[in-house]
Design goal:
Glutaredoxin, globular, 90 residues, 32% helix
Length: 90
């Protein structure tokens, strides 16, 4: 499984969603909404908010998570999917 997660700094839900993905051993690429002057970390791309809105025009919050190309939603949605058994540790 491969995930894509759109985040921003100082977002506790983003931190929690990334923790859940790590706990499930689901690798992810992070699209961080930030300043173009920032240096991205490994597996991270710095974007501006318009990039998220181009991908998901209804996005109003972060994180926004896709797993294997399917939009899961935010952190609460991811946690609920795990609880339902939709995703299990790899």
């Amino acid at each position: 499984m491969q995930a894509e997660i759109w985040t921003k700094d100082f977002c506790p839900y983003c931190v929690e969603a990334k923790r859940i993905l790590r706990d499930l051993n689901i690798s992810y690429h992070e699209y961080k909404i930030g300043s173009p002057s920032e240096t991205p970390q490994a597996n991270q791309t710095i974007v501006d908010r318009s990039a998220l809105l181009a991908k998901l025009p209804t996005a109003r919050t972060v994180p926004q998570i896709w797993i294997d190309g399917t939009h899961v939603g935010g952190c609460t949605d991811l946690a609920a999917a795990v609880k339902r058994g939709d995703f299990s540790p790899q």
